[in-house]
Every structure is written in C-alpha cells, then in structure tokens.
C-alpha cells in the first residue's frame, strides 16, 4: 500500500533530511515536467504459520509523473506506477505472481475548478484509510485493492477540488465514478469484480496539524458475487471517517468504517463489517520513529456463523532513517484472534524486518 510523507515540515535541517523522497526530476522545460520515482523494499517475515514465514513481499515499485502547461489555468498530467515482485524464481510457474500495474491515469486540471482524470487510481475511501496506512510493514488490512473503491481500482473517473473552489482554505472535496468490471473464474477473481457505482469524500485540515476526512461509496454487485456462499445484496456500500494529528514530530490517527456486502471473507463477503484502525508514532531527530497500532475488523450476520472477528491485532514496530534515501524497519504483529475461530483464520504472531531504498 501507499505510505504518506512522514514529516509535515522541515523544522531543522536534520528533520528535513528524514522526509521520504517523493521523486527525482528528470525533465523540466517550457512548461513540461517529468519526475521519476522508485522504491526497492526487501523484507523477511518470521512466524510459525508457514503462510507468513519467509520472503513473500520484497518488491520494486517504479514509475513516473508528468505534467504539461497548456494555458495559464489549464494543466495536463499523467502518472504510472508498476510493481515487480523480487521473491519469485526465474522462469518458474510463479514468475508473474506479484507483478502488477499499481497506478495509471491521465487528466486535466483547470484553476480553481479542480482536476479530473481517468484510469487506474485510488478509490476515494482510501482518502480515509490512508491516515492509518502508516505502519512500518503491516496495516492496510481494510484496504482491499479492486474491491468497491477502497484501495487501488481500475477505470476510475475522479474529480478533486482543493480549497473548495478557492473559497475555504483547508476544505477539499472529491467525487468518483467506476464502471462495471465483471470478472469470472475463481472466488478471488469474483470478489474483485464490481458493478457501476460512485464514491464521495470530503476533508478539512486545520493549520495546526489536525484534520478530518469522511467518505462514502456505493456500487452495484455482480450476479457472480451474489452466487457466492456468503454475502448477498444488490449494493456494496462503505461509510468511513478518520481523524489525524500530524505536527510537532507527533503522528496520531484513527479510522472507523462500516461496510455492507463489501468486506471479503472466506467464501465471499461479510453481510456487514465494522472496522477500526488506530496508529501512534513519534519522530525523533536521530531518525528513529517508533510505532504502535491496533487494527480490527468484525463481521456481522455471516452465513452459518453469525458474528466473527475477521482481523484483530496489535502491531509494535519502528522505522530508522539513515538519510533521505535509506531506511530500516521492524514490526511485530501480536495476533489477537482466538484459536479455532469460526472463519479458520491463522492465530500466529508474525515478525517482519526490512530495508528500503527510495528516490
């Protein structure tokens, strides 16, 4: 998942050096600009659960963002990002697993009217969930890609406006439409389908570091989804809200959301789910950034089960920033699910260690 900038302002030169690099400018002339960005993350997990033990997530992410000045008020832009898995063997049957287009969209921005773009982009529900998507390794458990505008999705028409048409500083609004993406085959493919739908989001940020954001999404479900053993209904819906404080080297965020027929579980979807995420971090000037978080998702009215925990854990970890390009991370996930839980989910703890180079 995408990690937000870790420091809001450069209070001291050392503090400025700790901010993650956003891009390397490779061209800027005559109103045309092109930035290159990339990140190599190598990591290893340790657990008694074989599915969470070993190298399963090392990857290379790379892409570019460009813009062109068309007139005084009109700007064109585009962005593309791809992920290559680093843990697969050469020429093996799994050589393509983990390789995917993360983002790819193009659009226009006109003055205070805002921007509009189309392509593979983040669903607006992620405007809320991104506030807690800050953990060193884990987290983002409620952010399912290609599932009802929660994470990255395909075929999104997105309009964004910052400052509410120039009238209210700090107030941002957005609207989004996604057309039908019908998928058949395995249950995993069917889960990542969707019918026509939309999302809305709004946020307000105070100048002292406090901000609020809310989002709503509603999409039609496909016939194949309603034929799965769990989760039935014409609509998949999502309500989400979060609060964040990011100032004075302190980062605090919490998010709460509810879904209807939209949270994937074994056999399909939970008819209803209640999700909560919270994270607290502090940035020391030495480069050390400890982190603690709590993540939970509880399914309601699940067929043949009733209520059941889907996700529940506490994560304790830290980043260490050597400089602007290099960082080290470690995190321990304390699984709080009960043994022999109704959904048959793993209950083992997991430790993750990793190193990141980015530019």
Describe this structure in words.
Pfam families: Porin_1 (PF00267). GO terms for molecular function: porin activity. It comes from Pantoea phytobeneficialis. Belongs to the Gram-negative porin family. One of its GO terms (cellular component) is cell outer membrane. With 359 residues, the chain is mainly beta. The protein has one domain: Porin (Beta Barrel), CATH 2.40.160.10. Helices cover 6% and strands 55% of the residues. It has helices at 13-17, 126-129, 163-166, 187-191, 223-226; strands at 24-29, 32-46, 59-69, 74-85, 100-110, 114-122, 152-162, 171-178, 197-205, 210-220, 235-247, 250-265, 268-282, 288-302, 306-321, 326-335, 350-358. Strands 2-3-4-5-6-7-8-9-10-11-12-13-14-15-16-17 form a 16-stranded antiparallel barrel. The longest helix is centred in the N-terminal third of the chain and has 5 residues, at 13-17. The protein is globular, with a radius of gyration of 21 Å. The two termini are 17 Å apart.
- Termini distance? 17 Å
CATH superfamily caption:
Porin
Supply the helix-strand structural class.
Answer: mainly beta
- CATH class category name: Mainly Beta
Spatial extent as radius of gyration = 21 Å
Name its key features.
359 residues, mainly beta, Porin, 16-stranded antiparallel β-barrel, 5 helices, 17 strands, 6% helix, globular, disordered N terminus, membrane, Porin_Gram-ve, Gram-neg_bact_OMP, Porin_dom_sf
């Amino acid at each position: 998942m995408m990690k937000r900038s870790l420091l809001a302002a450069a209070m001291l030169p050392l503090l400025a050096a700790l901010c993650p690099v956003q891009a390397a400018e490779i061209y800027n002339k005559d109103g045309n600009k092109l930035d290159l960005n990339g990140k190599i993350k190598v990591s290893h997990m340790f657990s008694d659960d074989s599915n969470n033990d070993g190298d399963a997530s090392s990857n290379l992410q790379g892409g570019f963002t460009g813009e062109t000045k068309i007139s005084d008020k009109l700007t064109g832009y585009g962005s593309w990002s791809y992920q290559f898995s680093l843990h697969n063997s050469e020429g093996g049957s799994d050589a393509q697993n983990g390789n995917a287009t993360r983002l790819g969209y193009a659009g226009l921005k006109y003055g205070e009217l805002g921007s509009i773009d189309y392509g593979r982009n983040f669903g607006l529900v992620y405007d809320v969930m991104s506030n807690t998507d800050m953990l060193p390794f884990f987290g983002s458990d409620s952010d399912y890609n290609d599932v009802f505008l929660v994470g990255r999705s395909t075929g999104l028409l997105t309009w964004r406006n910052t400052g509410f048409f120039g009238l209210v500083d700090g107030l941002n609004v957005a609207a989004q439409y996604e057309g039908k993406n019908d998928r058949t085959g395995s249950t995993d493919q069917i889960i990542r389908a969707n019918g026509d739908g939309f999302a809305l989001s709004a946020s307000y940020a105070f100048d002292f570091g406090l901000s609020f954001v809310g989002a709503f999404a509603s999409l039609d479900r496909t016939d194949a989804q309603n034929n799965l053993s769990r989760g039935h209904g014409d609509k998949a819906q999502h309500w989400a809200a979060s609060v964040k404080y990011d100032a004075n080297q302190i980062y605090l965020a919490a998010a709460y959301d509810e879904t209807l027929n939209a949270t994937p579980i074994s056999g399909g979807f939970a008819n209803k789910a209640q999700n909560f995420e919270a994270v607290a971090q502090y940035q020391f000037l030495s480069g050390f950034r400890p982190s603690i978080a709590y993540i939970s998702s509880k399914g309601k009215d699940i067929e043949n089960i009733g209520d059941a925990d889907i996700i529940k854990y506490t994560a304790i970890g830290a980043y260490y920033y050597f400089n602007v390009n290099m960082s080290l991370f470690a995190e321990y996930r304390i699984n709080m699910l009960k043994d022999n839980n109704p959904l048959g989910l793993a209950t083992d703890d997991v430790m993750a260690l990793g190193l990141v180079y980015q530019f």
